[in-house]
Every structure is written in C-alpha cells, then in structure tokens.
Design brief:
alpha/beta; Rossmann fold; six-stranded mixed β-sheet; about 35% helix
C-alpha cells in the first residue's frame, strides 16, 4: 500500500504553475524515481512534500494523514527526511556533529539543549555514528566536514538524512557533481538502503535511475506525463520525445 500519495497537487507562482495537478503514489518500501528536464517541477514537488512550500491546491497524504501545508519541523517529526541538490552541511563542524544535529532534530524536545551538554545524549551520538557507518564515514567522524572531498560530503548529507530516522527518504540528485567512481559508490549506498526505507529519488543520470528504480514518474512542465517500470518508461514514445531522446534504448 502507498506510504505517501499526492492528489491533484498544484503549486503556482503567479502565472507560472510549477507543479500542475500531480497525482502519484509511492508504495511502502519502494524506490520511486521522479525524472524530467530542468524546470519540470521536480524540486518544487519535493519542497511541497517537505513543507518548505504550501500547495496552491491538492493533498499530500502520508501514512493516511493529509500533511499538505505542514511546516518543515513537523514534517521531520513525522518521519520524512531529504537530501538537497546542492550540498547542505555545516563545514566548520565535525562530521559527527553534523549528523548529531540531525538526530537531535527528531528529539522530543529542544528545551533540553539549553540545560544539557551534547555528550549527555548518548543515544543520539549512537544514532549519528550508526548513520555514518551506513555511508562509510565512521572512521572520519572527528574530521571537520570542510576537509573531506565533495563525494564524501554527499555521503555525509545522506547520513544526515538517515540520522533523522525517516520512514520516507527524499533524495534530490545525490549523484550531482560526482565523478564516475563516486557515482558508483553513491549508487551502491542507495542500493543498500532500498527496501529498508521508502525512497523517492530525483536524478538526472538516467543509467542510475533505470538501474535502481521500482517505478518512475516523468514530469514535464509541471505535470506527470508518464509513470511505469523502467522498461515501460524506456519504451514510452512521449517520454522519449520530451526527455530521454536517444539515451534510452528502443
């Protein structure tokens, strides 16, 4: 059954409709990719799911509850986490502290932070180190985040999302700017997470999408123009005209 579904989800900025009546379902435990050319509305769609934007119309139903318009901090407490298209970390903090903050954001209350030292939250440190272990950065936990490579910073951002203990994990171009070797490493990490988390993936690297996805939704000018398995999407004539061109095999 779907963990999250949208019904007629729409976001307009004046005369521009960035997301236009999008209806889709993401099955629990699936890896569902959203692809499309630049300007198709993919990141705006993520911003609606995470409460950074309120929809103009439509519903977002997560685990049976309509969460449309819920503010981001409450979305995080519901169990929705995301990574960003551009690396978003605290460069002067250690790798472990970056992830610890994400774990603390899911804590029951912020009030204790004013009265207790960070090391008095051993369960949060344990969660942070476990997330770093999942992405292969546990041995660098004490290093400042600014000292690691771009590829490792993308791994760190994934650990930050995992430390929030999400039920729904939204990954916005996790392979953006990575070399071929770094891309393969990221693909391997996401494959390990598949099935353990419900994942919605935005990615421009078509080979990555086709190799990992259970289902794919294709957006174009704010609307979903096709949805199906990777094989079905590769064969779809409208998708090939709008986006894939000669990349996908016939």
């Amino acid at each position: 059954m779907p963990l999250v579904r949208t019904e007629g989800l729409t976001k307009a900025f004046g005369a521009l409709t960035a997301v236009n009546a999008v209806t889709l379902e993401v099955q629990e435990g699936a890896l569902h990719s959203v692809i499309g050319p630049n300007g198709a509305g993919k990141t705006t769609f993520f911003n609606l799911l995470t409460g950074q934007l309120a929809p103009t119309a439509g519903r977002i139903v997560f685990d049976g509850r309509d969460i449309a318009g819920t503010p981001p901090h409450k979305i995080a407490h519901l169990g929705i986490a995301r990574s960003f298209q551009r690396t978003s970390i605290f460069p002067t903090l250690s790798i472990a502290d970056n992830v610890w903050l994400a774990a603390f954001a899911r804590h029951d209350s912020w009030r204790g932070l004013a009265w207790r030292r960070a090391d008095r939250y051993p369960e949060l440190l344990e969660r942070a180190l476990a997330a770093l272990g999942e992405v292969g950065l546990a041995d660098k936990a004490g290093q400042p985040a600014r000292e690691i490579s771009h590829g490792e910073q993308r791994q760190l951002e994934l650990a930050i999302a995992l430390a929030a203990a999400p039920r729904l994990l939204l990954l916005d171009e996790p392979a953006a700017g990575l070399s071929p070797d770094e891309t393969q490493k990221m693909v391997g990490l996401v494959r390990k997470l598949k099935g353990r988390y419900t994942i919605v993936l935005i990615e421009h690297k078509i080979g990555v999408v086709m190799s990992m996805s259970d289902r794919i939704s294709v957006m174009h000018f704010g609307s979903v123009i096709a949805e199906g398995t990777p094989a079905e999407i590769q064969r779809d004539a409208e998708v090939r005209r709008a986006y894939l061109g000669g990349i996908a095999p016939p």
